[in-house]
Automatic annotation (TrEMBL):
Domain RecX second three-helical: 57-95
Subcellular location: Cytoplasm
Keywords: Cytoplasm
Keyword set includes Cytoplasm: yes
Family stated for the protein in its record: Belongs to the RecX family.
Organism (species): gut metagenome
All copies of domain RecX third three-helical, residue ranges: 106-148
Protein name in UniProt: Regulatory protein RecX
Domain RecX first three-helical: 12-44
Principal subcellular localisation of the protein: cytoplasm
GO cellular component: a single term: cytoplasm
Amino acid sequence: MALTEEEQLKVRQKAMRLLEHMNRTEKGLEEKLKNAGFSPEAIKNGMDYVRSFGYLNDQRYAETYISSRIGCKSRQKLLLELLQKGIDRETFERAWEEIASIQKPDERQILKELIQKKYAPGTRLTEKEMRRLYGYLSRRGFRPGDIFSSLEELEIAQEKEPWDEK
C-alpha cells in the first residue's frame, strides 16, 4: 500500500522534530517512529528523507559519542553502550580509530584519574568503600587487573579489620 502525501508529510516532520534537539542512531529513530504509531513503509520513508539530508549518520553519531566520553569510560564500555544503541561493531571500530588518533586515550591514566577523583593516593578504605570503588570502575568497563594494579600504584588499599591482625 502506497503512502499518502499526508502520511509522508507527517512521518517526515516527526523524524525531523526527533532529530532537532538530539542526534539519534538509525535504530533509535526507527524505534521512536514505530512508537509514534507509523507503519513500516512510513518509517522507511521518513528515515530515507532525513538520511538524504545527512541528518541520520551512525558513523558521526558514534564519533560524537566516543569523543564526549573517551576521557571517563573504557573502550569496552563505549563499545557495549553503542552496540545497545544499534551501532554495529565495524562502525564503532572506525569511529574509535578516528577519535583515538586525535585524542590518544590512555586507559590506565583515565583509570588513575577516576580513582584520584574519589580518593587521594595512600588512602586506606573500608571493605565497603573498596567494593563500591571497584564496582564503580568495573561498571565503566575497566578490567579487574588494571583496577587492582592502578590501586596498588596509587597505594590505595583496604584497611585491615581488627580481627584480621592475628
